[in-house]
Design brief:
alpha/beta, 10-stranded mixed β-sheet, globular, 33% helix, two-stranded antiparallel sheet
Length: 363
């Protein structure tokens, strides 16, 4: 290929990567159509969605939803904060809601800064999002209604979870689905993936030089340094229990990222290798393992649904019978509460909820 074509190809590839890092497609949704609630029943218990605006990193407003039993009693309940991927939103917490509420674990879902309906022009793949989590944790503790806190993160959310857990040793446990260990390393791998099979390749030396320009562009626009996102420096000093998971055929964030972090991680840990890629639906045993993990580390009040039996007796093997977590729109059609339409290249649903919560009309 000519030098001009090669330069154009490199410029196009790196511009795509800059946007992939700081301004991926933004999830669009209607809370009235795409979130469970505001009042719904799971396993015969009425739950509510309480929408909250919090001031997050840099004072940006975060759009949040806290899912909890309508009647809580006097004792604090544990909570799992669900952290979505780079093009996700609080809509992605539907599976966590369905699985954890029957175990008396509340779920806090958030549009992280720069995502969904929250304020912010850019995402930072964990740098600012870690500060968002700190604001959420402070809110939960200030309320006095939450006992132990866990984090469940996917992709960018998993990176955010491990970074925050390193700062706050009181976090009881983290579920880390498909984190990367180094953003610069991942970007170099993505360039190779983008240009695979192309007649216009990108020489390794040129790619490394271009990476410095990407670093400068990200610093200028989003005010963070991509070199700060190296979790190999964080994992050896993070001690809360962790459950890692990664798709065996993930070609967006290759499995060696999770494998490396799992090897370096200082706390109690386990690793689940999942059939499929970055966006494949997660299998039943992953969800069963996640529920058991959170029941062990969060110690929720006893219920009739024990952690080890969370799949038994239900048709799909993914939790207690919940009826349909399904509502109706004003036209009377069933509304599937799985979240907003998502851009195919980054945010195809990572899991397909088999059932959705049944809205309670107060009857």
């Amino acid at each position: 290929a000519s030098l001009g074509v090669r330069r154009w190809a490199m410029s196009s590839t790196w511009n795509k990567l800059v946007n992939l890092v700081i301004r991926p497609p933004r999830a669009q949704y209607d809370p009235n159509e795409h979130l469970p609630g505001p009042r719904f029943r799971i396993a015969g218990v009425t739950h509510v969605r309480r929408d909250i605006d919090l001031a997050g990193a840099d004072g940006l407003t975060l759009k949040c939803s806290h899912y909890e039993p309508e009647v809580r009693g006097n004792d604090p309940l544990p909570c799992v904060i669900y952290l979505h991927g780079n093009s996700g939103s609080r809509c992605d917490a539907t599976e966590a809601i369905r699985l954890l509420l029957p175990a008396r674990i509340t779920v806090f879902a958030v549009d992280l800064g720069g995502s969904g309906m929250s304020e912010g022009e850019y995402v930072t793949l964990g740098v600012r999002e870690t500060k968002d989590v700190e604001c959420i944790v402070n809110h939960l503790r200030d309320q006095g209604l939450t006992s132990k806190i866990g984090l469940w993160g996917t992709s960018m959310g998993a990176v955010t979870a491990i970074m925050y857990a390193n700062r706050d040793p009181s976090i009881a446990g983290v579920v880390l689905d498909s984190p990367f260990y180094s953003l610069p390393k991942l970007m170099l791998e993505l360039v190779a993936q983008f240009t695979k099979g192309s007649r216009v390749g990108v020489p390794k030396m040129a790619a490394r030089m271009a990476l410095s320009f990407v670093r400068s562009s990200v610093k200028s626009r989003a005010k963070f340094d991509i070199n700060d996102l190296d979790l190999r420096k964080v994992a050896p000093s993070t001690f809360c229990p962790a459950l890692f998971a990664h798709g065996k055929d993930d070609d967006f964030i290759p499995p060696h990222h999770s494998e490396t972090l799992h090897e370096l991680y200082a706390g109690d840990k386990n690793y689940i290798a999942i059939d499929g890629d970055h966006n494949s639906p997660r299998p039943a045993f992953f969800f069963d393992s996640t529920v058991i993990f959170f029941c062990n580390v969060l110690d929720p009040p006893p219920t009739s649904y024990q952690a080890g039996a969370m799949g038994r007796g239900s048709a799909n093997g993914l939790g207690p019978p919940v009826g349909a977590i399904r509502g109706r729109d004003p036209g009377g059609r069933d509304v599937d509460r799985r979240g907003s339409p998502a851009p195919v290249e980054l945010v195809r649903r990572r899991h397909e909820p088999r059932e959705t919560p049944e809205e309670d009309d107060g009857a």
